[in-house]
Design brief:
alpha+beta, Beta-Lactamase, 8-stranded mixed beta barrel, 7-stranded mixed β-sheet, about 45% helix, about 25% strand, flat
């Protein structure tokens, strides 16, 4: 019914039909003018010329600053050689290493006293605001991760000034004894040492850490190729902000002695950024900025800023993104939080780092900014003149077109008013307008009206004779009338019309709008109404459909009451349990699934009920009484059914009730407590006359405390009910996750364990063990995996086997099965004959002599390959260990302590067992690079083991940082996900992993 309104909304008037072609002509004329103007390329050429001027200014300024950088500021190579010569000479003369210099303050002062004049000469010659020297001989301090480094830091606020007595210089860092020898003042931020965190990535320490890191990564590169430019920072709380240029002090062999560098204050750099040249209105700005070429090519972080706003600095401006223009090296940035208007930017990069170097992605640039309105002022004026001419001519053209079209439109409006005011119940008769074209149209409309009226009457007569409850209407859009048959009015209970009638459009749609309240469902093809019939509780269901054909809309209303009632009966049978009237299992699952789709579930609880002794009642009094018992409990449960509770009969004597969207669990507990009390007080009369009580057991699981999804919630409630049936029958127990984890496999896994052991459903995955020096395969650990789906981990198998006294059988299967898998891999050529096999043995179990003999006869060629791992899952049985140890020695095999540092594997077992190999538990290995405590434990263990020729293996290795620390302490073997996960197939370790291992190993 809305389609007719939409059609009328998008119809066009005669005025529009006349104006649109004229408007099209105007648009075409304007487009030709614009095309000619734009194709002349005037705007582009003027814009390119303006961009070129801006770009050339910035390029010249960049070349000036870059010349200062290369020819003055960074000329410290000669100073590097002098510093290196002095330090090496003093270390050689005193026969000490560089790290020993940390404790020798006299020697430090001697070196610094010798080098201070050289630093003063450099700060004068290079016209910089500071020169610093840091010697890599740190001394620890109380603060974590920070150290004192000896060195000198000479500052000069005004490089253009000069004083023979050095009165313009201050010492910011350096020993007071050295400073006093040269009569130089101490700065207000003076300290005798540099305070540096060598492992920090903080910008405050990069002037030292970055060159050191570069020298370590590229030991053969000259020092000047490892230079680092640090962005703006404040060396001390009272210092000015500076940028620094620093290089590592290193010899030709790559040995590092410290860092040497210069600083440039932000105020000094601003003196080179003459922003007046960019804009005649002094709105131009210069900015030295930084950006990462790899990550954010279009994002720039300001470092030094200079503009007419003297108090504006880089700290006031966040990182910003730019947009490329058609002109090379010229960009734009929109107005916003940074600028009040749109700006043009010319960007020229500084060549600070060599290609393929460590910092090639860090690019510094000079950015010249000027308001776009100033840069493109000529282009803007040109465009303004053009648009003014287009608008004035357009207004004159459109005004004339509108007046002429309006006159023609008024004539047709008179005809439309006469049609709208005609009587829709009669055939049309319209007064002529004495205009040939309009009068011809009116005659055609009158003929069409007569034919429609006669055809509609015939259709209505046919439908009534067929006695089919179908109501129809036909809306003639051109005439503005709607024909309805009599059945249409009967279906919608419209008493005003009794027979076929013709209504005007507004009256018809007003009637339909009145019935929008009774719409049940609606989609693109149909609308379903539920209209009261006048009888109590009864409604008439009507399916309404309509379609448009040319200038007509046809609609059908069909009575589908019987169809709807039959479908509801079928749904009732499908969704409800016949015996109790509660939801059945399928309907309950659908309902609870819909609930779990809600965003805010609140607190929920699922209770599984089980009637006690139903089988006894069925056997004693018959199933008919058992059904009566079920109906009685179902009636009780139905009392819980409410807006926030679903109840169903699951099957047999089992029921569900699901509470949802409660604020607290206490609300649900109060309901259950009252319900439980009611059950306990409900008497049941047995057929033999005796009185009993309604007895049930129930298990309860909570959402989201126990489970966060539907499947787990159902499973946990089921387990809670099962647990109470086997422990405290006739009560309600809540789910306990610890009991579930502990007892689920114990309850359900006994048969699965027997099947697994009887049928030997055990496979063995192999995880490689890698040699630290070469990356070669040292051996494989054989890890038990069950092919029975009930067992998710070896721990479940061991726990259940211990409870069932089957550990001895498991020990036997492990020895023979793991060794058999290993030998087959050797015979197929997948692994080398010399590869070690790591077998896990249970400390409290040992094979019989007969089984040992059988094992030795079957695997005699490979007995020396065995590394027997004494596991920590059981306390050590010393008698059993002696028997195993005797066999191992006879086989010329090895003994290993597994999981050292956890469980029963500790220092006492290390002393008692005297193993050939110790496996460090992954609890120590994990994040060992982050924990000094773990490193201390590791250091003590390695020190003890190395003295006794015990091999150290680190298991559970996952990162190269862990390997770095482990190699530093002398670990021999590695095992973990970094190299490979346990697998049934032998696959090569990724080459890149071996290369990483060898790279780190080469550092030690």
């Amino acid at each position: 019914m809305k389609k007719s309104k939409d059609t009328r909304r998008y119809s066009t008037s005669i005025l529009s039909r006349l104006l649109v072609p004229m408007l099209f002509v105007f648009v075409l004329q304007a487009a030709v003018m614009m095309a000619m103007f734009l194709s002349s390329d005037i705007l582009k050429k003027s814009g390119d010329n303006a961009y070129g001027v801006l770009s050339e200014k910035v390029l010249n300024r960049k070349m000036l600053i870059e010349n200062e950088m290369s020819n003055r500021w960074t000329r410290i190579t000669d100073l590097h050689e002098k510093v290196l010569k002095v330090i090496r000479a003093e270390l050689s003369r005193n026969n000490i290493e560089l790290y020993q210099l940390a404790d020798n303050h006299d020697l430090q002062n001697s070196i610094l006293d010798t080098l201070l004049p050289q630093l003063i000469n450099t700060i004068r010659r290079n016209y910089v605001t500071g020169v610093f020297l840091v010697i890599d001989a740190p001394s620890p301090i109380a603060k974590k991760d920070e150290f004192f480094y000896p060195g000198l830091y000479v500052r000069n606020e005004d490089p253009s000034s000069y004083s023979l007595s050095n009165e313009d210089l201050v010492i910011s860092k350096g020993p007071s004894e050295v400073v006093q020898n040269h009569n130089i003042a101490l700065g207000v931020d003076w300290s005798p040492f540099f305070t540096i965190s060598p492992n920090s990535r903080d910008i405050f320490y990069k002037y030292f850490n970055a060159p050191i890191a570069a020298a370590l990564e590229y030991p053969n590169e000259p020092a000047k190729n490892l230079a680092f430019w640090n962005t703006l920072f404040r060396p001390d709380t009272l210092s000015d902000e500076v940028i620094t240029y620093s290089i590592p002090i290193k010899d030709e062999k790559g040995k590092i002695y410290g860092v040497l560098g210069i600083d440039l204050s932000a105020r000094y750099i601003q003196s080179f950024l003459d922003f007046d040249e960019l804009d005649i209105y002094k709105k131009g700005m210069y900015c030295i900025a930084f950006h990462d070429v790899d990550k954010n090519a279009g994002t720039f972080l300001p470092i030094v800023f200079n503009s007419i706003a003297s108090n504006l600095n880089a700290g006031h401006i966040p990182a910003f993104e730019v947009e490329q223009t058609d002109y090379k090296n010229v960009y734009t940035i929109d107005k916003g939080s940074i600028f009040t208007e749109r700006y043009c930017l010319a960007i020229e990069p500084f060549h600070l780092y060599q290609r393929n170097g460590m910092y090639e992605n860090q690019e510094w640039v000079l950015i010249g900014l000027a308001p776009e309105a100033s840069v493109l002022s000529f282009s803007v004026t040109l465009k303004k003149i053009f648009w003014q001419s287009v608008l004035v001519s357009g207004f004159l053209f459109l005004a004339g077109s509108y007046l002429s079209s309006k006159h023609i439109s008024n004539m047709f409006t008179k005809v439309v008013l006469k049609l709208q005011n005609s009587d829709p119940k009669k055939m049309l008769s319209i007064e002529k307008m004495n205009i040939t074209e309009i009068d011809t149209l009116l005659v055609a409309i009158e003929k069409l009206s007569a034919s429609v009226f006669n055809a509609a009457s015939r259709v209505s007569t046919i439908i009534e004779k067929l006695q089919v409850p179908i109501g129809v209407f036909e809306h003639n859009i051109l005439m503005g009338t709607v024909f309805c048959n009599s059945i249409w009015f009967k279906l919608f209970n419209i008493q005003k019309y009794s027979g076929d009638s013709v209504l005007n459009t507004d009256e018809f749609y007003k009637l339909l709008d009145h019935y929008e309240y009774y719409i049940n469902t609606k989609d693109d093809t149909k609308t379903i109404y539920a209209i009261p019939t006048g009888e109590h509780g009864k409604v008439r269901w009507i399916r309404f459909m309509q379609t448009k054909e040319n200038d007509k809309i046809l609609g059908i209303a069909l009575d589908i009451t019987k169809e709807v009632e039959d479908r509801k009966k079928l749904e009732l049978q499908m969704n409800y349990d016949e015996l109790t009237g509660l939801y059945n299992r399928a309907a309950f699952d659908r309902k609870i699934t819909e609930v779990f789709k809600q965003k805010h579930l609140g607190i929920c609880a699922l209770v599984m009920w089980d009637l006690d002794n139903l089988k006894y009642l069925n056997d004693s009094f018959g199933h008919a009484y058992g059904d009566t018992h079920l109906m009685a409990f179902g009636k009780k449960l139905a009392m819980l059914q409410q807006e926030r509770c679903l109840v169903c009969r699951r099957s047999g004597d089992e029921f569900y009730s699901f509470f949802y969207t409660f604020s607290t669990s206490d609300e649900i507990k109060l309901i259950l407590t009252a319900f439980w009390k009611d059950i306990q007080e409900t008497p049941i009369t047995l057929p033999n006359g005796e009185t009993s009580k309604l007895r049930v057991s129930a298990g309860l699981a909570w959402y989201p405390y126990d489970a966060d999804n539907q499947a787990d919630l159902v499973r946990y409630a089921d387990f809670a009910m099962y647990d109470v049936k086997h422990s405290f029958k006739g009560s309600l127990h809540e789910f306990n996750l610890d009991v579930y984890k502990k007892n689920y496999i114990m309850i359900h896994g006994t048969e699965a364990l027997n099947q697994m052991l009887d049928r030997n459903l055990i496979e063995y995955a192999l995880q490689p063990i890698v040699t630290s020096g070469t990356g070669d395969i040292y051996g494989y650990e054989m890890l038990m995996r069950s092919s029975a789906p009930e067992f998710k981990s070896p721990e479940d198998i061991l726990r259940l086997a211990k409870a069932q006294s089957k550990l001895h059988k498991l020990e036997e299967l492990t020895f023979f099965g793991a060794m058999d898998t290993f030998v087959k891999k050797i015979e197929r050529g997948e692994i080398s004959k010399d590869t070690k096999i790591f077998l896990n043995t249970i400390s409290s179990q040992v094979l019989s002599d007969a089984k040992f003999f059988e094992f030795e006869e079957k695997f005699k060629p490979y007995l020396s390959n065995i590394v027997l791992e004494i596991t920590e899952s059981e306390p050590l049985n010393t008698n059993f260990y002696d028997l195993k140890n005797e066999r191992i020695r006879n086989w010329n095999a090895m003994v290993a302590i597994d999981d050292f540092g956890s469980g029963y594997s500790n220092e006492s077992s290390l002393l008692f067992l005297s193993p050939n190999l110790v496996k460090i538990d992954m609890s120590i290995v994990r994040d060992v690079h982050k924990s000094l405590d773990k490193q201390n434990v590791l250091e003590n263990l390695v020190s003890y083991a190395k003295k006794r020729d015990i091999i150290i293996l680190a298991e559970g290795v996952e990162t190269i940082d862990e390997i770095d620390v482990l190699l530093r302490f002398g670990v021999d073997l590695f095992q973990g996900y970094f190299f490979a996960k346990p697998s049934f197939d032998i696959t090569p370790i990724p080459e890149e992993r071996i290369q990483e291992l060898n790279r780190v190993f080469s550092l030690y």
